[in-house]
Amino acid sequence: MIVETDLDFSSGGSLRNQRQFLSSGSFTVPDGVTKLYITACGGGAGGTQYSGGYRAGTPGGDTSFGEIITCHGGVTGSSLSHEGGGVTAPDTCLDYAFNGGSTNKAGIPGGGSGQRKGGLGGDRGGGGGASALADGGDGFMNHNYLPIKPVKSGFGAGGGGGGTGIGTGSAGDNACGGSGAGAVINAPIDVTPGDTHLVTIGAGGVAAFYNGSYVAGHGGDGMLIVRWEGV
Predict the structure, then answer these.
(1) Predicted pLDDT at 200
(2) What is the pairing mode between strands 87-88 and 97-98?
(3) Coarse DSSP helix, strand, coil percentages of the chain, rounded to the nearest 5 percent
(4) Nearby residues of 183 by Cβ (< 8 Å), 6 or more positions away
(5) Could you read off the pLDDT of 177-204 as tens digits, one per residue?
(6) Which helix (H) or strand (E) holds 143?
(7) What confidence score (pLDDT) does residue 148 get?
(8) Contact partners, residue 33, CB within 8 Å, separation at least 6
(9) What is the C-alpha separation between 136 and 131, in angstroms, rounded?
(10) Of the candidates 57, 132, 141, 165, which lies 20 to 30 Å from 49 by C-alpha distance?
């Protein structure tokens, strides 16, 4: 199993060529290139709140490279736990694929993924699940409903990129974080020079909304990086 999760996306290492996607687009395989290495993550789910009834955030979106690899977004809903998003890819990619971390009810940390950690559980909400590229957000920690760190999580200090589930709603013993998204890290795929593949980037889920404000954390956005050896 691949465990390299702290990647330097500013350089390709021995893979001297790369392109990063933070929004949807397309990629044309360069001349002479027959193998690509894909690092990608879906969008994390938004957190859930409970106060006299569930108010769920929205699921994270899927990130995909053509019809070859799909990293499914995190899950949210009116339940006490959520499994993380999975990965649909060729069998040759399975050793490079990670399911997103799960979440649970208030006071319980979110699940990890790869070497990434789920968010801390609070007394008013459970922590968000991690993706393999980003930690989960923390749950709310006190009776004033104040988060102990920013409510949006994701790759790049809360900006666009790898999605995670995020800290949960502002009240209720059973509020859950959103779960983390599926991810691949340097997954090798065979390609044909000159072929164009559509790239879809999954957005992070939106947090539960109640009485005119967000009462949980948003999920982090997805991302995708294509790398190839110099020719």
Answers:
(1) 97
(2) unpaired
(3) 5, 25, 70
(4) 39, 40, 41, 42, 71, 87, 97, 98, 100, 113, 114, 131, 132, 133, 162
(5) 888 899 999 999 999 999 999 999 999 8
(6) none
(7) 39
(8) 191, 193, 228, 229, 231
(9) 7
(10) 132
Give the domain ranges of the chain: 22-231
Question: In the prediction, which pLDDT does 218 show?
Answer: 82
The C-alpha atoms of residue 78 and residue 148 are separated, in whole angstroms, by 24
SS3 36: strand
In the chain, which ranges are E strands? Answer: 17-21, 25-28, 35-41, 49-50, 54-55, 63-65, 69-71, 87-88, 97-98, 183-190, 196-200, 209-210, 213-214, 223-228
Residue with tokens 């790239």: 199
pLDDT tens for each residue of 13-23: 444 699 999 99
**Token duo for residue 224:** 């995708």
CA atoms within 13 A on the CB side of 82: 45
* Core vs surface per residue 24-51: b (16+ CB within 10 A) or e: beebebeeebeebbbbbbbbbbbbbbbb
Residues of the chain with pLDDT under 70: 1-16, 50-53, 77-81, 123-124, 140-174, 231
**Phi-psi region for residue 35, left (φ > 0), alpha (ψ -120 to 50) or beta?**
beta
In this structure, the number of other CB atoms found within 10 A of the CB of residue 52 comes to 8
Cα 162 to Cα 194: distance, rounded to the nearest angstrom? 28
Number of H helices, E strands in the chain: 0, 14
Residue length of the chain: 231
pTM beyond 0.85: the answer is no
